[in-house]
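Researcher: Quick test of sequence recovery. Tokens follow.
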């Protein structure tokens, strides 16, 4: 995914915030990996999670159409 820093920051804050909110036991992990020139960010937790059919909605809500 390529995007502006603000949108990426909002996505991460939302994912981390929800992970913390719904994780009653266990923990929340933010992982950053470097793959050449690319970075991979992942958030994992012990809560119920996000269903597969809703994952695209998370990213699509931050997309802006060209004029």
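Model:
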């Amino acid at each position: 995914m390529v995007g502006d820093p603000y949108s990426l920051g909002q996505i991460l804050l939302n994912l981390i915030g929800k992970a913390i909110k719904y994780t009653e036991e266990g923990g929340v992990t933010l992982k950053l990996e470097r793959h050449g020139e690319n970075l991979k960010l992942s958030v994992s937790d012990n809560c119920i999670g996000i269903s597969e059919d809703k994952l695209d909605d998370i990213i699509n809500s931050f997309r802006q159409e060209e004029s």
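DSSP finds two helices and two strands in the chain.
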